[in-house]
Design a protein that fits this description.
The chain is α/β, with parallel strands linked by helices and about 350 residues long. Helices cover about 30% and strands about 15% of the residues. It has 12 helices and 14 strands. Helix 8 (about 240-255) packs across helix 9. The chain binds iron/sulfur cluster (2 copies). One iron/sulfur cluster binds near residues 88, 90 and 91.
Length: about 350
Amino acid sequence: MLENYQLVETLLQQPLENGDVVCNLCLWRCRLRHGQRGFCQAHVNRNGKLYNLSYGIISAIEVESIRNKPVYHYRPDSRVMSIGSYGCNFRCKGCHNLEISWGVEALDKLARGQSSDAFATPAQMVETALKHEVDGIAFTYSEPAVWLEYVLDVSRLAHEAGLFTVYVSNSFVTDDALELMAPHIDVLCSDIKSLSAEFYKDICPVGTVEQVLESIKKAAELGIHVETRTNVIPTKNDNLDELKGVAQWIHDNLGADSPWHVTKFFPAYKLSHLPATDNAIIDAAAEAGRAVGLQNVYGHSDISCDCATENAPVSAWLELDSAALEGINQCAASCCGDEGILVKKFEREAGLLAKTE
Ligand code: SF4
Ligand code: SF4
């Protein structure tokens, strides 16, 4: 295991005769020439070999209830340490995590060797989780397949230390990646963003809803505990018949007892002009899910905004104990604003963050 940051060879890479390499971590299956980076920006071809740029680079960290993921049917009273890195294989127009998930600038700096981002070895990460007395580690904030090399190394050590692992995903991942992760991941919390081909095309030009659904089904077949989530966005995917279709798919393919979480959209990024989802729509979607026979449907009027995740610098989590973090792990007073729009980008500049040094 590494002690310091360095490029780590990408898992599931397939070299071609002309020096190009295909990355088979996610369904983009990027084919990259020397010097090129994948769609996620986190993998680079250097002289015919692919390397992951984000191994051990932590963009966000938080300790919270597993119910925030949301996961309700796996150790529901437990706490997890959520971590994420830069790089995502989707470009959702209402993404709340732009800086900590896409991290385009951060990945550019990593590629140029100019980054000063926090690096943590897998062992340090597990030690940090034990120090904060959590029960599991959740890989979240962006698509974990994009740094699967690190996710697997941390997960192996986490299991050895008695911690469980949660993988929060958009499920645009290959079967090969799922097979690699299955022995090490206990829970998959996956988005089913929509059943509409156009919806997926809009956020991932090569993505199809069928691929996503197949991937979720495969994860369940591999024995991973699966819970699904649909974030209902006004005018985009709030058609009740369509939402009923999502519930029906879950019922028919994952089982009547498979948990489905319907969450509320809060305006962000290019969808900042849309209103937050009306609670009545969340309730109606949940009711539609029950009507098709799903037994465990949860409508959430409070989950979606994860603005607290950046309020403490990553280094604070690695270095301080839980008690010392108590005072700084709080949402900056006005960070959601009346409309729920995230402005965390501006929090630091505006002096809204508590100082830790
Ligand atoms: S993880 Fe996906 S997006 Fe990133 S390089 Fe590999 S195939 Fe491309
Ligand atoms: S999958 Fe998640 S992190 Fe990635 S762009 Fe979409 S909302 Fe953002």
